[in-house]
User: What shape does this take?
Amino acid sequence: MTRTEIDTALQSAHAAGDRAGLSRLYALAADAVALPAETAFLLTQAYVFALDAGLPEATALKGRLQEMGAER
Assistant: This one.
């Protein structure tokens, strides 16, 4: 999936209120960027939506943020 496709899918997921989809798409977007600050921002969004949706992926997302020093 290209960054443009991810952005389009994110807009659709926001419009639909699809929290689980938003979490997965933000995590995918985080994997597609190179700057650590951008990665941390996108992973944080993925984590928040995962928590909000009650997804088990929240634990792994928090772990990724901790590994990069963005979450304590």
In short: The chain has one domain: 3-67. The radius of gyration is 11 Å. The helical segments are 3-16, 19-31, 36-53, 57-67.
